[in-house]
Amino acid sequence: MRILKGHEGSITVMEGISASDSSSGGLQSNTLVATGSKDQTIRIWDHRAKKAQSFLFRGHSDTILSLRWAEAGRVLLSGSKDKSFRIWDTRAGRMRSCVEKHFGAVTSIRGVHASTSSKSRDSAAYITTGRDSMLHFWNMEGECVGSITAHRG
Question: Structure pTM?
């Protein structure tokens, strides 16, 4: 058994990538796991590699609460208590976009599966939810294309 060290705070979220997520030209390994922490960092791990930590992403100013792989593993999405939703480029190892539209912590991120022909600038690719009771729909560029007030009370 191998013990991997990296985060300075407790891990709050983990998201693995499955073989089907990585099969269309993105990351070619189904051994990758992304972790988010109270230390405000995101780390991508490959337990088979000699150096297990592949990437370290910094940018959030509070605890990471949600992670989601996208675009066949080429992108990692993150949500935080800092109210931001970030899009990370896993090939370049840098942040692609940061959006602060929620008025509360971003607690969940999901992908919207659409046919290739319907992917336009105005079509949603991701949905975020937060403690502000809002659902926001985002395109591939990280622009909000719609919002819904989900719950009250």
Answer: 0.81
